[in-house]
Amino acid sequence: MRDVAIIGVGMNKKWGELWEVSLRDLFVEAALNAIENAGVDHIDSMYVGCMSSGLFTGQEHVGAMMADYLGQCPVPATRVESACASGGAAVRAGFMEIASGMSDIVLVGGVEKMTDVDGDEATYALATAADQEWEAFNGVTFPGLYAMMAVAHMHRYGTTVQQLASVAVKNHLNGSKNPRSQFPMKITVDTVLNSVMVADPLHILDCSPITDGAAAIILCPADRAKALCKNGAPVKIIGSGQASDTIAFHSRADLTTIESTAKAAAKAYAMAGKKPEEMQVVEVHDCFTIAEIMVTEALGLVEKGKGGPAVESGETAIDGRIPVNPSGGLKSKGHPVGATGVAQMVEVVEQLRGESGDRQVKGARLGMTQNMGGTGASSLVHILEVM
Amino acid sequence: MSTARAWREYPRRYRYEAATCKKCGKVFFPARLICDACGHREFEVKPMARTGTILAHTVIRVPPAPFKDQAPYAMAVVEMDAGPRLTCQVVDLQEGQLKVGQKVRLEFRKVFQEGPAGPIQYGYKAVPV
Q: How much is the ipTM here?
């Protein structure tokens, strides 16, 4: 297996409710930025992470469409879908294509255009990541499922609503330093606790937003990375792990553990030959505040049950022991579902290159991303090291 | 929802039919074709006991469109005494009953209606006991 490096990254200038931008233009803008950043004159193949372009815009077959509008036909172009982990799964597909020797330069992008439908339709589209027949049929929503995770975690470990709110406060503070962020405003614990209740105990400010956005990266064999890379240092993907779990949240062995993330992380740590305590910057899937708490535990960054106190005491702040979501995370930066897993790679690459401005984690050379689908039925973990 | 899609699940939604693995005894709701514990493919299908315990709960205040007329409503993850877990609404609640450890029984109820003149979908909701 060949080693794989990231030599270019790109996103849209800003994420948010981009009513003037179409699904295809969202993707192409980010992809062109990544190609330009890498400085490559061609790509051999491309993957598009996208959860539900069909329900959000009526368009399927977006692999070929994006190759077309990127001016790259006839390169092979495949869409990858794993709900909210579509982006991370697309990254892994591109990683495997280079590692296997099938291709030398691969573009991996992720995109979601979520604001062409109203709130009800968007909620419906997102709920398709749960078990339609045995969860959604009975009226549960995604905030509702994560709310039940929160209740189970609070019941077992004494996690508090203030600790949940602290995740949002930290991520909005980080996001206020990110020019691409959809909601860059700073908030307080009281702002969160006084915001509208969506599914007890989760308030609207415990939830990630509905976002239009795209992100892209360029991959190549690590032994060619330094020669090909035109801007900034190449970043090697030294670990990649993926795991699945039951589609229904209620069937999980332990309602307070995101087991697929723990399993994916174990594989990624083993491949990289690294330990949790060596990570210097981490981007995780904080679709809801409780998710960040449970994910930091599943990744082994904090002790089981201690995710709440860790965020409350500042351990996961940019200047803390283990900085989590310096980008602002899904909470503040935005969560265009199919793009999220790729955007996490963009953030960590920029952090490892030292290009993150006010939100830079000083001296970071080793970082990690964690992206998950549904309530954790899919998880992807990648470990990155600057070359 | 198509008639066939609704109809094929009647045995689970109306009669709580669960499948017990004939080799290792694990109980599945709904039934599946292969046991995820032992890989066996033969099951005994019969209604499961309708009683269980709440493991986690919430109150849905921003509902999906077909549930707008019911919001806010309580939901829970229930561990059935027969073994399987499920997610459903909790109704006929008294103060203080929406809690971890609360014993419940599944009752046959209207789940939602598709539009003012659409088909009515029936199934189970949990009632505290």
A: 0.98
